[in-house]
Amino acid sequence: MKKGITLKDLAKKLNMSVSTVSKSLNNDQAISPLTKERVKELAAKWNYVANESARHFKLNKSFTIGFILPDLRDPFFVEAINGIEEVAGAEKYNIILAQSHENTCKEESIVNMMIRNRVDGLIAAVTKNTIDMTLFEKFRTVGIPVIYIVREPRNDGFNYVSINNVEGAFKATDFLIKKGHRRIAHIMGPRTMPIAMARFEGYRQALLKSKIPFDEKLVKSVDFTEKETEKAMVELMKLDPFPTAVFTFKNDITLDAIVFLKKKYKARLDCIDFTDFGNLPVFKYLEYKPVASVKEDFFEMGRQAALLLFEIINDNRQDTEKTFRGVKIPCKVIINR
Amino acid sequence: MKKGITLKDLAKKLNMSVSTVSKSLNNDQAISPLTKERVKELAAKWNYVANESARHFKLNKSFTIGFILPDLRDPFFVEAINGIEEVAGAEKYNIILAQSHENTCKEESIVNMMIRNRVDGLIAAVTKNTIDMTLFEKFRTVGIPVIYIVREPRNDGFNYVSINNVEGAFKATDFLIKKGHRRIAHIMGPRTMPIAMARFEGYRQALLKSKIPFDEKLVKSVDFTEKETEKAMVELMKLDPFPTAVFTFKNDITLDAIVFLKKKYKARLDCIDFTDFGNLPVFKYLEYKPVASVKEDFFEMGRQAALLLFEIINDNRQDTEKTFRGVKIPCKVIINR
DNA sequence: CTGAAAGCGCTTACAG
DNA sequence: CTGAAAGCGCTTACAG
User: Fold this and answer.
1) What is the pTM of this model?
2) Options 2.160.20.10, 1.10.486.10, 3.40.50.2300, 1.10.150.130; CATH of B165-295
3) DSSP state for residue B40 in the 8-state scheme
């Protein structure tokens, strides 16, 4: 690209030193009002735009935070971005986004990219297959703070912001029990995902509380593809008696399960109730949908994660005796009527 | 953040000059294989990660392209990102995303941010209210190439990649005509948007071809909010005879119109056909939807825009006698059955 | 209140 | 094949 106007150009024209020009534009109080005015006037006239990359380099700060997320096609993650943006914007920070597409190799190359670009902090939602956190240990080595979001890391020693998955799953299951269901299936996420295990735990606790015996044949684990959900439903529908309610890991699974019922068990469509996590805006347009969903406030998770991150970034104390923080946002059940 | 390992650190340890270390890591052919090996070995051992911001600064290139888009909540723009990512990734470029939220003030601050950060190029989908392009002229002044995408600028002298909106609208309207409709309404986008006018033009041409008289009472302009769509539908449904088909600017408008019919004109739900632009993946789950939609290939638009952008970025010739290029991707009608 | 000077971590033309 | 040196555009501690 063409070279822009530099401080030097301004200084030469004004017969001042580069330092004075720099300080004027940064509103340094040591500079006289008149000088500031003259500098700013010329800067405006010449359309001077500071070279941020020089500034970042000099200050050894990128004024950028990274956000690694699985996929932008998931509208919930988009909400998280908006929450992060709100906080980052106020701090005058940019956000660099990167999608892992649930691929751990891609995730690794993104991690390296973030380090090469020296982001000042990172927010990460790991892939559904990320078990081993050693990749992310790199950030600790180079001193970049990281907040995990939505999907909690399985081990301790990490900052994270998530919802209370056990509680949410308990409520979603209990909702079905209160509606009179006794035979309640659960289509859970991959067992590698800590939050899938947490939701499974909430499901069990709700059954236990109501003294409904746990039946492992009613629990199926899927990887979020339509094919796997269909397979789970085939098996569940073959049971005798078949479950009259299903609590699923998230909206997409419910919708795919309903598509399956429409195709193969039209008659059961009206007698099986679903609950799940999420609350897609598109529900408004649907005839068949979960009776109730646990609302996951992704905007708030994004906001809280960013707040926590900036607390660390702006904290100039020695990073000895560092403690890690976990924030769990409460979640409530929304009836989709 | 903590300081990382630098070339100097490596050079000192290896008793070499910084230049030699730099060249080794960059695989300069002037360096002996043995030296390269020694350097790379230590770099790996010490987890050396090049400081990109120093490199960017030195090379006066950010290896970053910007993408200004209205809103990530629009899944079509997410597809465009994926198309851009495919090309940018291959070129080893990063993408910095910024949402204008259809707000021209926000758009202005994003433009300035992009210039301050010295992006090497920009892809932009302007807000629906952006009439005046002087804001974007700044990029020309500083020599940053820009490709407009999806929403074409109203004046000439800009590079853009879009679909053939007139053709698509013609096909969508003609589809309804061929299905036997004679009284076809059009809910168009804001008249400030060139592509809304283009789609309106396609609608008129289709009517003309089939010798159906144009009736301006059948055309309503909306700003994409549910409220405006409802208002447009109220007026259309009061006409006598009411239209038996509606061609709308995009999916969201159709869905809101259908919600309105469900509420107020349940009986007409099955006798009014819709066509529109877009093809939301969520259609799969819907009972009521447009009979056919013009598929807008946003992934391809993103890809083409990025290809065009890199052609300009990587072109080292003098930028005298610059010509501007417009790419219109053909679009086809998808039947939603 | 202003300026001279150092330096952030790289790359590269040039000399040897 | 290797190295010394300049310089990218800023900020800032220090001197005056």
Assistant:
1) 0.87
2) 3.40.50.2300
3) H
